[in-house]
Amino acid sequence: MSFPPRYRTPRARSRVEAAGAESRAKAVRAAVELFSTAGYRGASIALVAEKAGLSQSGLLHHFPSKAALLAAVLEHREAEDGRFLSGTDDRPPLGWAAFDALTGLVARNSNRPELVGLFVRLSAEATEPGHPAHAWLRDHYTSTQSWLTDAIRDGQHRGEIHPDAPITALVHLTVAVLDGLQQQWLLDPDDIDMVDEFTTFVSGLHSQWDTTPTTSSTA
Amino acid sequence: MSFPPRYRTPRARSRVEAAGAESRAKAVRAAVELFSTAGYRGASIALVAEKAGLSQSGLLHHFPSKAALLAAVLEHREAEDGRFLSGTDDRPPLGWAAFDALTGLVARNSNRPELVGLFVRLSAEATEPGHPAHAWLRDHYTSTQSWLTDAIRDGQHRGEIHPDAPITALVHLTVAVLDGLQQQWLLDPDDIDMVDEFTTFVSGLHSQWDTTPTTSSTA
DNA sequence: GTCTATAGCCGGATAGAC
DNA sequence: GTCTATCCGGCTATAGAC
Fold first, then answer.
1. Together in a domain, B120 and B53
2. From the C1' of D1, which residue's alpha carbon is nearest?
3. How do residues A36-83 score in pLDDT, each as one tens digit?
4. For chain A, which end, N or C, has fewer CB atoms within 10 Å of the first or last residue's CB respectively?
5. Is A63 within 8 Å of A55 (Cβ atoms)?
6. What CA–CA distances, in Å, run from A55 to A3, A45, A68?
């Protein structure tokens, strides 16, 4: 990552420091909310500050620039999701289990519109090379892709997934489905059940590439 | 649509009017380029004007506001794509042929990064109810969805598509794949061949729901 | 139809008091 | 750590000359 400074969570000393940490946390939460609706460009630090109960300069005391605030937001989100996909600290899910893990992620996202909005908007904005989250976005995609690629490859080696399955296409399509469903869901949450749709997609993959014809594995 | 005024292409009278039309067209082209990279919010009318070879006020003479410029851009794009999907003025493609038409659209988009960028960015921005393109975006999705829904339903009636095929899920997934592939392609055009990936997706649908087991229909 | 000039707002960021 | 005050720049939009 090529982001400005770092923001280590402090090791809690005096009462004063605790207050500072609190403000910082509130600011990040507020930033997530606003970036997720208005996007990075569309949300002003003044608004974020207000929502966090600080003045604009108060906020800028914790984050030297708007980009730095964004960096903190991204670290925060990344931490949450990363933890989620690697299971509970053991080895990452492999083979079809990886798709089940993704289904779980979709289910979780269905209850967190802010995170979905944040991601959808940043993905679109940060496609431009100059954007402060551009590097993050590339990292995000490549790591997701390699995570899923490894999982599928492993499934093939263990004879769970058909050896003819076109790995890179499956990876790209799966990621596309995830992103695309979020986009639609954001536009009209009532029109679409992301978990249902994604499950349908995955069972389609099963019916084509599963070596052990189980009708559905994700209940 | 709830957009401000209208911009009829003039019926070409005097030399003066011709010049005006020319400027207007140049402005729309420039706006497409800039909106497609920086987004609507991110691009300023001053920049659009410069790119079109006008002053900022000169541009605003043709379009009373920035939102009006956006409206013109959307009309322009909509016209192009609508024409494309309804074939050459005859009835819209039905059954599997609809998916072939979509493949054609993807192929065309592969050569028009500006249109893809425009759409990806606006889709993300305009998810917010307040955005000037919000109504357009909803229209766009619902009309695409109903177009594809009709096509699939017709394919079922003619016995070309299996009656158990889950229509709405297929529609949502197909749209998701289209959007998601564009997003990935925009981030790294060399990493992904949209036509290949989409074709793989469609042949997956065939293998699951085609009643006449032809291996591939999209070459 | 196109320009210059300008109003008026809002954005990010800095200086410095408390 | 938090505030007020302020600078500076960019933005949309308007007024009015040519």
1. no
2. A20
3. 999 999 999 999 999 999 999 999 999 999 999 999 999 988 887 777
4. C
5. no
6. 24, 9, 17
